[in-house]
Amino acid sequence: MDVLSGRILLRPIDPDRSLTFYRDVLGLAIAREFGTGSQRGTVFFLGGGFLEVSGTASGPGPASADLRLWLQVRDLVATHKELLGKGATVLREPRREAWGLDEMWIADPDGVRICVVQVPDDHPIRYRPET
């Protein structure tokens, strides 16, 4: 399989509310928009991938407890402050995890859990020893 691009598809309970969250609260840049009315969709840039918010959820219940988004940022402290100022729901304040990443958790309007992470300069994900 030769994958050229990928995206996560979200079917929100309230599409306008979720669009506002991802566009205005998280500040994700729009890659493209399509359709009208109930067929309207927005695709956001998501680092190396895309997040499509389109359609509506099949039921009124909360988002799957198994779905998580992982968003890496340059400055977690500044991002935390920015998101608080925009009214984001912070589930857990920023902290250094045992595995060495600085993480905080937020939720979108449907309860989708989002890990916002900063990778420290000396973390193995980033660090490459000289050879």
Overview of this protein structure:
This protein is α/β, with parallel strands linked by helices. The protein has two helices and eight strands; from the N terminus they run E-H-E-E-E-E-H-E-E-E. Strands 1-4-3-2 form a four-stranded mixed beta sheet, with helices on one face. A four-stranded mixed beta sheet has the order 5-8-7-6, with helices on one face. It is globular and about 55 Å long. It starts with 6 loop residues before the first strand and ends in a 13-residue tail after the last strand. The mean pLDDT is 89.
What brief labels describe this structure?
131 residues; alpha/beta; four-stranded mixed beta sheet; 35% strand
Topology diagram in text:
Elements (H helix, E strand, L loop, with lengths): L6 E4 L4 H11 L4 E5 L6 E6 L2 E6 L13 E5 L3 H10 L3 E8 L5 E6 L5 E6 L13
Parallel strand pairs: 1-4, 5-8
Antiparallel strand pairs: 2-3, 3-4, 6-7, 7-8
How many β-strand stretches? 8
- Summed up, the helix count is 2
Rounded average pLDDT: 89
Which descriptor suits the 3D outline? globular
Helix content: 10-25%
Task: Give a concise summary.
With 131 residues, the chain is α/β, with parallel strands linked by helices. The protein has helices at 15-25, 76-85; strands at 7-10, 30-34, 41-46, 49-54, 68-72, 89-96, 102-107, 113-118. It contains two helices and eight strands, in the order βαββββαβββ.
